[in-house]
Amino acid sequence: MSTLGPGVARTGTARPGSPGATRPCPHCKTTILESASVCPACKHHLRFDSAPAQARASVPLQVEGTIRHPPNEAAWEYSMVLSIRNERGEEIDRKVIGVGALQAGQSRTFSLAVEVTEARGAKLAKGLLKR
Ligand SMILES: [Zn+2]
């Protein structure tokens, strides 16, 4: 899959077993965290072993908004674009999540949620906290 624009660094370069390591979901092929027990895209359960309960996810960022098409205007087309930037403002991921059209009187609600979990069992990389 190559939805990244030019000059955009790939995410998911972390080694297996380290924080940020990824794998494809066996159900929907979305790139997900290796540590995920439920696919955030298709919501299939991925693990049935009784490994230590995964750290509970928190959602430090959640945004939702609705766009309503005015009743007497021509149809609109929309593109929902999502980008992720690092602490230096560099774009590390960019995706078009969905496109579509709005006819008179229709509306669409767009939601964004960023889930975070503590990376259990992973050792803090040496020097990570140094400046
Ligand atoms: Zn999936």
Keywords:
single chain; two-stranded antiparallel ribbon; mainly beta; two-stranded antiparallel sheet; binds zinc ion; 131 residues; disordered N terminus
Explain this structure.
The chain is an all-beta fold and 131 residues long. The chain folds into two domains: 10-54, no CATH class; 55-118, no CATH class. The protein contains no helices and six strands. It has strands at 22-24, 31-33, 58-68, 76-85, 91-102, 107-116. The chain has a two-stranded antiparallel ribbon with strand order 1-2. The protein has a two-stranded antiparallel sheet with strand order 3-6. Strands 4-5 form a two-stranded antiparallel sheet. β4 (76-85) and β5 form a beta hairpin. It is elongated. Residues 1-9 have low confidence and may be disordered. Bound molecules: zinc ion. Zinc ion is lined by residues 25, 27-28, 30, 39, 41-42, 44.
Percent helix among the residues? under 10%
What are the bound molecules?
A: zinc ion
Number of helices: 0
Number of strands: 6
How many domains? The number is 2
Q: Overall mean pLDDT score?
A: 82
Biggest sheet, spatial arrangement of strands? 1-2
Q: What's the shape?
A: elongated
Specify the biggest β-sheet.
2 strands, antiparallel
Radius of gyration: 19 Å
Please trace the helix and strand order, writing H or E for each element.
Answer: EEEEEE
Structural class: mainly beta
Q: Which stretches of 5+ consecutive residues score pLDDT under 50?
A: 1-9
**Beta-strand percentage range:** 35-45%
State the oligomer: single chain
